[in-house]
Amino acid sequence: MKGTIEAEQNTTYSEVINELRRKGTQKQDGLKLKKIFNYRKWLKVIDTLAAGLTISNLANQYYLTQMLYYNIPQYTISTEYNNFCYLGLIFTSLLLICILMHHIIKYKVTNIKKANLETEGFKQSSISITLEIIICSITSLPNVNIKFTGTIHNENYFYHITDIFMIIMLLKCYILLRLYEHYSKWTSLKAYAICKNYLTTADAFFGLKSDLKDRPFLTIGFTMGFFVVIFGIATQQSEKCYEGKSSGIDKLTNSEWLIIMTMTTVGYGDFYPITHLGRFFCLLACISGMVLISALVVSFNMASEFSRDQSIAYLAITTKNRENQWFGTAANVIKAAFKMAKHKDFFTRYKSNIYLRKCVFNFKRKTEINALMDITSAEMLYDIQHKLEEKLLATNSIICSVPDLRKRCESLKSNQNILNQRIQEVLLQYKTIHIKYDIGLK
């Protein structure tokens, strides 16, 4: 008897200890999530500041290229040029600090998520950090006047080091894409928690796919405008210092017009690239334009599709139109019969008889078609849609309850343990009463 009670007490103690451990791990998970959310807030501030510094640095560098190109004489170093170079160095230094802070915070977040960070992916992340620092550290230096010259198609060209840096610095625009993960509704903290329940990640790619389904025209238009600006600046810097260049291509608006014509595969021919770099950037613009235009066609196709109610209304309207045509053929038969009875001449009656047979034939054919179409399109399609919706709703309710299955099982287990304890208490009381009753009888 005592051994049974001690075993039951040990079982109860072990269950209580396991429950406390489970609550402790849940509390630790909550603390980890809270730390991750705090780090994400800091990342949002740092990435926003880095994006602003990137735009300022690119605008400063573009102004330097325009200053050297339109100076008289061209490409001469001035005091104003050196001052803007110093300003670019300040922007670049602050940007590098933001990038280092970004990766430090990402390292802490990854360290929370993965305990084996030292063995998984650290070399790859160090390579990406090094490459990012190299790209973001590129900027024009004061008192540096280096030119690269050559010939293409028997025409001279030269590239200043500032123009080359401008083209390379366009790679910094990837920093602007980081803002998408912070400001999109598909990557918010609530979306992150929901995606975690369904074993997926609310990252930038998930947000981009969601926006392509939710608002495809705005997403594709914004992406196309982004590419037009980037490739337009790169084409302008590649073509403006070539002696045999197309007239007016050294202006940014004309270069962007060339990129628009290239991306939409129109190609009026009023502007065209001649240098190898200009053709390369136009080729990239053409490939990206074909991808975006094909996505736009798919979006138009999806937008033109009927909803469930619209498809039912369309079928009802077409059915009504067929009925009206059927009534029209029946009216033609009646009119032809009256005309045939009215005419007394043999030739006119013969013509009326042929016309009556034609009307009867059309009436029979319309009757058969309407009978087949009424069965297949209107009623059967509506019934199939209604049954499919019921089954999908039932399946959806089952799927949505899967993430809560673990919590339900744990609650059932805890309830079962409580019931077992109460049953054991009732049995002990029953045995005690039975023993006292036996003693009383003796």
Question: How are the secondary structure elements laid out?
Answer:
Layout: H1 2-70, H2 79-113, H3 122-136, E1 147-152, E2 155-160, H4 161-169, H5 174-183, H6 189-197, H7 204-214, H8 216-239, H9 252-263, H10 276-304, H11 308-342, H12 346-400, H13 405-441
Antiparallel strand pairs: 1-2
Helix pairs in contact: 1-2, 1-4, 1-5, 2-3, 4-8, 7-8, 8-9, 8-10, 9-10, 11-12
Keywords: Membrane, Transmembrane, Transmembrane helix
Protein name: Potassium channel domain-containing protein
Domain Potassium channel: 228-300
Could you please describe the fold and organization of this structure?
This protein has 442 residues and is an all-alpha fold. Among the domains are: 29-176, no CATH class; 309-382; 401-442. 79% of the residues lie in helices and 3% in strands. The chain has helices spanning 2-70, 79-113, 122-136, 161-169, 174-183, 189-197, 204-214, 216-239, 252-263, 276-304, 308-342, 346-400, 405-441, and strands spanning 147-152, 155-160. The radius of gyration is 39 Å and the shape is flat. GO terms for molecular function: small conductance calcium-activated potassium channel activity.
